[in-house]
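anyone seen this seq b4? input:
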Amino acid sequence: MDTWIIYVIAPIAVALVSWILGKNSRRIDETAKIVTLLQDEIGRLTRKVEKLETKLEAKDDALEQKSRIIQEAFRCRTPSPDCPVLIRLAESNRRHFDSDAAAEATGGPPA
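predicted toks r here
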């Protein structure tokens, strides 16, 4: 009976265990590849979020500056067309618009 187990059952058991482990090893390799791809994608998205946060901060600063200019314009005692604060705001807006139009014409990002 012992010889039956040693010569027939044991090799079958070893082959079965090797097949199962081999299958799991392939799954582990595939999972590792997927995890690597996902880590790369997360890194790319993190960099994109950082760039967008930087742009958002710049937009917030510009908005805050315009808000202060408008508040100063309300305090201005001269009529609106002659108010130096509003004249300066219009010049700033015109320069910004011109730089955006120039950047768009050359295919670059707006300033």
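The helical segments are 2-75, 84-106. The chain has a mean pLDDT of 79. kinda curious what u guys think
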